[in-house]
Amino acid sequence: MDNIKKRVVLHFPGFEPLDAAAHRARYERSARQSAAVWDFSASVEGLKNFGRAPYFDVTASSADWHTQSRIHIVDHNDLVAGLNGRPFFARLVQGYRAAAKVAVTGGMFGYFRYAWRFGLFFVFPFLLMFVGLLLSLVIAFAPHILGLPAWSHIGSIALAIAFFVYVFLPQAEKLHTLHLFSDWEMAVAMADLNGLGAEQWLEASAISVRRALDEPGVDEIVISSHSMGSSVATHVIGLLLEREPDLLQGKRVVFMTLGSAILQCALMRPASVLRSRVGSIARCKEIFWLDVHCLTDAIHFYKAKVAAVCGHADAEQASILFVRFKQMLSAQHYAKIKRDFLRVHRQYVLGPDVKAFFDFTLMTAGPLPASHFAEFSSKKLPELTFNSGEEMQAFSIGR
User: Fold this and answer.
1) Alpha helices in the chain (DSSP H)
2) Given this model, what pLDDT does residue 393 score?
3) Quick count: other Cβ atoms within 10 Å of Cβ 375?
4) pTM of the model
5) What is the distance between the alpha carbons of residues 277 and 272, in angstroms, rounded to a whole number?
6) What confidence score (pLDDT) does residue 375 get?
7) In which residue ranges of the chain is pLDDT below 70?
């Protein structure tokens, strides 16, 4: 198997309050971890402007191989910042409005049908906020409930406000509750393409992505996406394929979805355009779709065949790679994060503590074609080593 010498990566991050510079810094930290684990060198250069898809170059090498990767970050931090920057009550009202849309348009039913843990993830922030508001109301009306004089409400209302603002909200924000409210607003916008200027934003991103695809002399193009970013990536790549069906002809392309939340948006009835674009990607002969799942990650659709669920059962389905974060991390590290569901969900794009058959840095900057990782499994891991860049007989990336 030929090594990858030059690669272009188009990475669509998840719904996080991080701009391209922050994602680059995270990538550099993860690359440093991966290089130490596998004994190779990795140099991450500075961020360069490229419209909606700024990039940084990564050079990774060992004794037997040398790979250059240009990694574009197609982040949606401007949308995240706009949603999170509004007054509290606006975020509260719009969040519950988005939840109602998800429920009414069939999204919630689909979540519990295809991934019940994702259904609980949907319900969680809205139920938690409801409990906080309800407790505050109970405190405010306690004098009435206890038959106390009307003037007692002065103190109870002040106490209720203090409880909500200084006790409940700080604890709720440790669980990123209001951020999750905004996440569901984004999901609704990606589903019906109505609101947040979604169509215009996707159009601008598509222009930059189209330019990035013209990079000459590339051995492989990896379109990687994490969480909500998978819906964004599907829209952008699907839009380009609608306009230019032969856009990827002659190219080696891997569409890699990590902890994908495409169905978060696609299961809503208004998401017909998104479901159609899932089909465009699934039917594109040049694209190898690698869908990475992890049982301990509740924020994705474990084992779901995305294309089939979106109405394209006749198309080639994504190759599902099942990973275990426990095998990537030290026992102490895993024990520290395993009860933080959002932290676990981020592990797809973070660095490893030990050698494992899934490694985001190797898949986006290493010598092996990203599609080759679809063949790996935890049962095969002990047998894998890497032999002088000629054939995949083993998986020891270093010297």
Assistant:
1) 20-38, 77-84, 88-104, 107-114, 116-140, 142-146, 152-162, 169-174, 177-192, 198-212, 229-243, 262-266, 272-283, 306-309, 331-337, 341-346, 360-365
2) 41
3) 12
4) 0.92
5) 9
6) 79
7) 1, 376-399
